[in-house]
Amino acid sequence: MESGGARPVDDRRIIERVLEGDAEAFNLLIRRWEKPIYNFIFRMIGDRDEAMDLCQDSFLKAFRELRTLKDRDRFSAWLYRIAHNSCFSMLRRDRGKTFVELMPDDHSARSPIEVQLAVEKALQQLPEDQREAVILKVYQNLKFEEIALIQDAPVSTVKSRLYMGFEKLRTLLS
Amino acid sequence: MSHLGERIADYLVGEMTKAEAAEASEHLRQCSDCSKQVEAFKRTLAMLQSVPDREPPRPLVFEVEQPKPSMAWLWRWASPALAAVAASILTVMLMSPSASEPSAGTQAWLAAELQKRDQAYAADIAFRQKQELLAEKEKLETATAIQMLAQRLPSGD
After folding, report:
1. Does A50 contact chain B (CB < 8 Å)?
2. Are the C-beta atoms of residues A81 and B157 closer than 8 Å to each other?
3. CB contact under 8 A, A144 and B15
4. Where are the domains of chain B?
5. How many CA atoms lie within 13 A of A88 on its CB side?
6. Complex confidence, ipTM
7. Inter-chain contact B48–A52, Cβ cutoff 8 Å?
8. Rg over CA atoms, chain A
9. pLDDT 10s digits, A23-81
10. If contacts are CB pairs under 8 Å, which of residues 9-38 in chain A contact chain B?
């Protein structure tokens, strides 16, 4: 599991280099955050290729708007916010689409790949806000305050979403 | 203490204070409903955490357009030098103590040298102009590509 905690000094130093004109240094940030951001987006939208496109768009937008980042020690939360916006734009656009069932609801002993598919399918059945709260907490290991900033919601709301997400997943995966 | 309710999620992910966690643990020792729910949530959490991150299907690499080194620097260096050489040749000729007409052989040699230099200058000029055109073309292509990418981006944060 990727830790969501930023490495404030390292990220800050790289950001300063980029802003001083060393644009290639941005690749260091990409290498560090590419996998967590990709997995966050993939778990949100459930499509590998779309997730890759949105991941690329998110980093491109981050590069273009790097100067607007107020707190250079919180680059990761800012980047997640950009990825969050990309995801929700896409989800709003694709609302109403029918998704094909990929596997039967057989709850007998599952292989690891079946567990993976079952979890990914179950996540897709959560309301988007609850799905995001679960993903950011369980997989990205962000603090409630960080998730609240990304979702632009109070901490109490985030906790509520997490609880309801867990409750629904418990039913779907039991 | 009342039932944990939604605070079960806080307890499970370790985001309670020490005092809150101690109080919750004490409650769980006494409340079978809450402890059953915590156990069920723990199994769900374990299943979620058993799923590893996926590798992105392709790596992301950010490439910065580097301007190609132009030959302009060579021209800027060479042309004053060449001009100085030509001028010095001419000066030597004019200042020569033997002010008499140079021999035919010398004249032919000088004409050939001057022609060679003219051709070299013309080649340098043509090369420089070609490099500048290539650089302009690359700039336009890059600007178009950036514009197309920008149109794909969602607006606003």
Report:
1. no
2. yes
3. yes
4. 5-52, 108-157
5. 18
6. 0.85
7. no
8. 17
9. 888 999 999 999 999 999 999 999 999 999 999 999 999 999 999 999 998 999 999 99
10. 23-24, 26-27, 30, 34-36, 38
